[in-house]
Records
---
Amino acid sequence: AQKVTQAQTEISVVEKEDVTLDCVYETRDTTYYLFWYKQPPSGELVFLIRRNSFDEQNEISGRYSWNFQKSTSSFNFTITASQVVDSAVYFCALTEGYGQNFVFGPGTRLSVLP
Amino acid sequence: DGGITQSPKYLFRKEGQNVTLSCEQNLNHDAMYWYRQDPGQGLRLIYYSQIVNDFQKGDIAEGYSVSREKKESFPLTVTSAQKNPTAFYLCASSFWEGSNQPQHFGDGTRLSIL
């Protein structure tokens, strides 16, 4: 069965600090996809990134970067030089095979203080 | 602008009453989904639909019903059989063809019991 764990329930940082959000997943499939979503206070989930199991290259997008390591079943998300607007709940999610059955982690609430 | 519209934003239900949450999308997406979000938990899938006139139960379908008469619309009814309906409900949509397409989310409906 597939499972996503986000061990950090809440994180608080001061603006301009770097912060890493952890995501550990479980799957028996060799083909799977990993996602990160951001949920700001307004409620809607905003798609950030999708990664397939065959591509372990790390990715950087502006202040955001993702570290995918199959050896540890982790897909961690780092925000560099955090800003107050980064305050949100961040969800890691997994789909197996070529399906659309998303399994979400419990989320990490990030508070960036001015 | 293309997007997903959920209404109402807030909804109150009396004991023994059925209520219907609306979800409309104009993204030309094939698939639509309903999730329930409880505090401190990730999203849990209630129902999803790949095409018109077809839908499948998710992990927590009991006490809920859906219909998919039009591609753009996927209303969710919370029936009186759902004993603990207080939650935040999110609707999402995606393309189905291809693998593991990102889901796009609405702003959510917060349902409370009177």
Note: Residues 36 and 42 of chain B are 9 Å apart (CA to CA).
---
Amino acid sequence: LAKTTQPISMDSYEGQEVNITCSHNNIATNDYITWYQQFPSQGPRFIIQGYKTKVTNEVASLFIPADRKSSTLSLPRVSLSDTAVYYCLVGPANQAGTALIFGKGTTLSVSS
Amino acid sequence: GAVVSQHPSRVICKSGTSVKIECRSLDFQATTMFWYRQFPKQSLMLMATSNEGSKATYEQGVEKDKFLINHASLTLSTLTVTSAHPEDSSFYICSAKRGGDEQYFGPGTRLTVT
């Protein structure tokens, strides 16, 4: 599985757009990029998944450049409730029997 | 999305005793279930992978005789921490998937060993 590198922490204020970048230089051709969110004392929650270019859902956008060696999770207009740890994962999408492997994640702190 | 539950959500036990944690997929049949452990301010660490009806596969460094995993049905997996010690205190998270579908996570179980 491709190794990922993310900032350890980020700070933001309510209403701002937050962009968290993840580096994955060794991404394989059949790998997808998936982001999870985790609140304290809760299990991780799926945010978004993409393979290339841009993916958008009701929660976030995921930008993936052509070389796919990095990706950026964009959270528009964050609120206090977006304070959480965000994990970038890279691997084959939904491969039967294969577990997700988590890296260190980025702790996002949103202040008022 | 699919729902995975865990029971109990919190448990406190005395050193030397055993404790069982249940993981259930509520609205789908999980062919594979996974157990993770998470220490404070650290990431999730995969402990083991279990397929229904077969023995679990443990990650390197995880004692299979200490962390007993049973996946007896397509909707239930259990993790038993045997002879628990304070260093086993952690947040245990299970997840489940059906075939090549997305992996769904439970809410976690906080284990405290006194």
Note: The CA atoms of residues 61 and 106 of chain B lie 23 Å apart.
---
Amino acid sequence: EVQLVESGGPLVQPGGSLRLSCAASGFSFSNFGMNWVRQAPGKGLEWVSFISRSSSPIYYADSVKGRFTISRDNAKNSLYLQMSNLSVEDTAIYYCARDRDAFSTSSCPDYWGQGTLVTVSS
Amino acid sequence: DIQLTQSPSTLSASVGDRVTITCRASQSINTWLAWYQQKPGKAPKLLIYKASNLEIGVPSRFSGSGSGTEFTLTINTLQPDDSATYYCQQFSTYPRTFGQGTKVDIK
């Protein structure tokens, strides 16, 4: 069974930094591209970042480019999102999501984690 | 960036009705479109990929169609469990973008 479990989302002050993790199991993690998608309270879905199975290429939404860094450790079946210079607008539930098709950069997420809430507030 | 516009934003329908949601792209995305269902407090669930392909395990009352810039998600014979918000997403180019969502209520 595919499982994605996010962690690392406590309260952080504006301007602060935070690292999210996503532990993957139940599939060959190294064969799939991975995404971070976020959802502000009461709002719609916003795609944040994608990392291919080999860590290149990597893509970001304009709203986080230069502030967020996606990475992965295939040996540990883990995905990460390093977030810096956080603002209140970054407050959201952050989901990690696996791309549906292995060995592809042209796919869509199929499995999603339960999400981790990141709150940016003073 | 490619913009996706869904219509309507909300709709209310009765059990057994046929419901159609439209997603329009600001430029051609071929068939690189997915549809998701999200219920309150839950992660999104993939329903349709590549515009018209039903994901495994999704009831056959859901169907998708379209190509280029106009796409539709149809729910035949609406069920109480279909009360949710539905999103389209394009995966033609980066940044991948979502529509703003369509909330479906059951009368």
Note: The radius of gyration of chain B is 13 Å.
